[in-house]
Amino acid sequence: MAILPSGSQKDLWGQIAFYSGLGFIIPGGAAGGYFLGWLLDEYLHTTPFLGIIGGLAGAAAGIVEVLQILTRAEKSADREGPSSDSGKS
User: Fold this and answer.
1) 3-state secondary structure the chain
2) Checking phi first, is residue 45 left (phi over 0); if not, alpha (psi -120 to 50) or beta?
3) What's the whole-model pTM score?
C-alpha cells in the first residue's frame, strides 16, 4: 500500500508538518502585534492607531520570518544534494 519506503514516508510527514506550520506564522505575528498595540493603546489612550500599526508590523515580521525559514530550508536541501533514489521508477 505504501508507495514510499518507510524512511521516506517519515520524511514526507515531517515535511508536511514543517510546511503546514508556516501558515500560522504570519497570522500569529499579526495577532501578537495587534495585541501588543492594543495594550499600548489602552495605556496611552490612542485607540486604535497603535493596534493597527502593531498588527501591520507583526504581519511584516511574520513574512520576514517565513522567508528566512524557507531560505534556510532551501540552502539545507541544496547541501544534501539530489536524492539517491531520484532515478528509480
Assistant:
1) CCCCCHHHHHHHHHHHHHHHHHHHHHHHHHHHHHHHHHHHHHHHCCCCHHHHHHHHHHHHHHHHHHHHHHHHHHHHHHHHCCCCCCCCC
2) left
3) 0.74
Q: Which three cell numbers mark 35?
A: 495585541
pLDDT in tens, 12-69: 888 888 889 999 999 999 999 999 999 999 999 998 999 999 999 999 999 999 999 9
Query: What does the alpha-carbon distance between residue 82 and residue 15 come to, in Å, rounded to a whole number?
Result: 16
Instruction: Please say whether the beta carbons of 30 and 60 come within 8 A.
Output: no
